[in-house]
Model the fold of this input.
Amino acid sequence: MRKKILKQKSVNILTKKPSGASTKYIFECDGCSKKFSTKDILAKHISYSHKTQKNQKNTTAVRTQVEQTPVPQLTEIFNYDICEFKTSQKRCILAHLKAHVAEQVYCCNNCDYKSIKKDRLQRHMKIHTGEKPFSCHICKYQCIQKSDLQKHMKIHTGEKPFSCHICEYKCIRKSDLQRHMKIHTGEKPFSCHICKYQCIRKSSLQTHMKIHTGEKPFSCHICKYQCIRKSDLQRHMKIHTGEKPFSCNICEYKCIQKSDLQTHMKIHTGEKPFSCHICKYQCIRKIDLQRHMKIHTGEKPFSCHMCKYQCIQKSSLQTHMKIHTGEKPFSCHMCKYQCIQKSSLQRHMKIHTGEKPFSCHICKYQCIRKIDLQRHMKIHTGEKPFSCNICEYKCIQKSDLQTHMKIHTGEKPFSCHICKYQCIRKIDLQRHMKIHTGEKPFSCHICEYKCIEKSSLQRHMKTHT
Done:
C-alpha cells in the first residue's frame, strides 16, 4: 500500500506542470554559469563580478562574449519545491525527478509545502505551530532555526562579514549582498503583470500585488488605519505611543522615521535636490515637486461634493470639508478662538505673545504672517493687481475686490438682528453692534471722550493739538 501511495505521488510530481515555470530569455555567463534576462545585465555582471580581468586581452574577451552570445529562443525554466534543482530543459527535470521516485515525499497538511527530507518538514511545521525554540539573550528576538539566531547575533556585535566591492555597503548575510549587487547590475527579475513595476525581491513583488488586490492585512487596534506592510503598522503605532526615536542635533525636531530626519536635515544644509523645469521652484522632496507640477498642468484631482471647490492635495480637501461640517478641532486656551487648522492656531497664538516675526524694511510695519508682509509691500510699490471691470477701482487683495463688487450688485450679506442695518462686511456689523451694546473701547487720555472706532479717536486727538 505504501509503495502504491509513493508511486502515485511520484507520478503526480512528474506529470504536474511546475508552479514556478516562467518564460525568459537566457544569457549565460561563461565565468560562473549564471543566467540573465538581457545582454545589458550580463555585461554589467561580467564587469562587476569578474573585475579581475583587467588587461586588454581579457577585456576584449568579455566584450566578445557579450557580443557573440546568441539570442536564444523562448525557454521555460522548470523548478519544484522538493529541492533546489533548476533547469531550462524539460527532459532534464523529468530525468532528475525520477531520482525522487524511490524517496519518501513529506507533505505539509496545512499548506502545499513538500520536502524529501523529514527534518525540513519538521522545521517547516514550526511556522504553523508558532514554535520558536531559539531566542536572543539580549533582545526579544525569537526564531525557528539556530542559524537564524547566529545571524541575528551579528546585529548586536556589529559584525558585517559581507561587503560590496563597488560601494560601502556591508551586511550580515550573503543573500543580502547578492540582492544588493542587483542594484549595481540593474537586474530586476520580478515584474508585475498588471503594471510596469519591477523589483529585485520576490517579497517586494508580493507586497506590491496587494496594491492591485486592495488587500491590507495589517490594521491598528486603536484607530481604523490599515496597511499592506507590517513595518508600516509598526511605524504608525508610534503615532499613538508618541515615540519619536530620531532627533535633529541642530534644532528640537523629532520624528518617527529615519528618512524623515534625513529629509529634515536638508532644511539646515539648504539642499533642494528637486527643481521644476518650467519655473524656478526647488524643493527637498520628490512628492512636493510632483504636487507643484499640478500647478502648471492645472490638474486638481480632488473636488468637494458640496460646492465647486477643487484642489491638488487630499489633505487640502479634508481641511476644506471642515468648513461644511463646522468642525473646529483647534482652540485657544487664552480666548474663545477656534479654527480648522493647527497652523492657524499657531499663528493666532502670536497675537497673545505679541510676536511679529515679519517686518517691513521701509517702514515700521510688523506682522505675524509672511503673506501679510507681502501684501503690505504692495503699498510701497504701488502695485494693485486686482481691478473692477465696472468702475476704476483697483486694490491689492482679491478679497477686497470681491467685497467691492457687492457695491455694484447691491448685496449686503450681514444684517443686524436688533435694527434694519445691513452691510457688506462682517467687520462693519461688529462695529455697528457696539452702538446697541454701548461699548466704547477707545478713550482719550486727556479728556473724557470715548468712541467706538480707533479712527474716531485719532481724529479727536487732533483737537488737542
